[in-house]
Automatic annotation (TrEMBL):
This is Hydroxyphenylacetyl-CoA thioesterase PaaI. Belongs to the thioesterase PaaI family. Residues 39-106 form the Thioesterase domain. It comes from Phytoactinopolyspora halotolerans. PANTHER family: ACYL-COENZYME A THIOESTERASE PAAI. GO terms for molecular function: acyl-CoA hydrolase activity. It holds the Pfam family 4HBT. Gene3D superfamilies: Hotdog Thioesterase. The lineage of its organism: Bacteria, Bacillati, Actinomycetota, Actinomycetes, Jiangellales. Keywords: Hydrolase. NCBIfam families: PaaD, unchar_dom_1. InterPro entries: Acyl-CoA_thioesterase_PaaI, HotDog_dom_sf, PaaD, PAAI_dom, Thioestr_dom. SUPFAM superfamilies: Thioesterase/thiol ester dehydrase-isomerase. It comes from the Bacteria.
Length: 131
């Protein structure tokens, strides 16, 4: 799925790891991602988290999409920050799932959380192609 995700790739998002219900993505904040307050625009932070979420919930094979998501902005990200998004499955039930994603940056004093994301997924295609 990530190989065909031109939106994420055009922003320099990299898929670092993927496993059953998990995924890790990274992105560096560039000048075009910084808003008038000299901080990263929240939409880019959401996109990084959403990409990790999408990779995690699609890791089982059937086509799965977002049914909804909520974010909490914890700290500002700035130009040249290297951000990491780690997604993990909380639960799957029927064709639905709940995933948590933490976006952080590494600092000399340790990891600093930038954003917390909770996504709800819906499988729209079962194994073999039928809905």
């Amino acid at each position: 799925m990530f190989d065909a995700d031109y939106a994420s790739q055009s922003l320099g998002i990299e898929l670092v790891d993927v496993g059953a219900g998990t995924a890790t993505t990274t992105m560096t904040v560039t000048k075009t991602m910084v808003n008038g307050h000299d901080i990263a625009h929240g939409g880019y932070l959401f996109l990084l988290a959403d990409t990790a979420f999408a990779c995690a919930c699609n890791s089982y094979g059937p086509t799965t999409v977002a049914a909804g998501a909520e974010v909490s902005f914890v700290a500002s990200a700035r130009l040249d920050d290297r951000l990491t998004a780690v997604a993990g499955e909380r639960t799957r039930y029927g064709r639905n799932g709940i995933y948590d994603v933490t976006v952080y940056r590494d600092t000399p004093s340790g990891r600093e959380v930038v954003l917390e994301f909770r996504g709800r997924s819906r499988t729209i295609q079962r194994e073999g192609g039928s809905a």
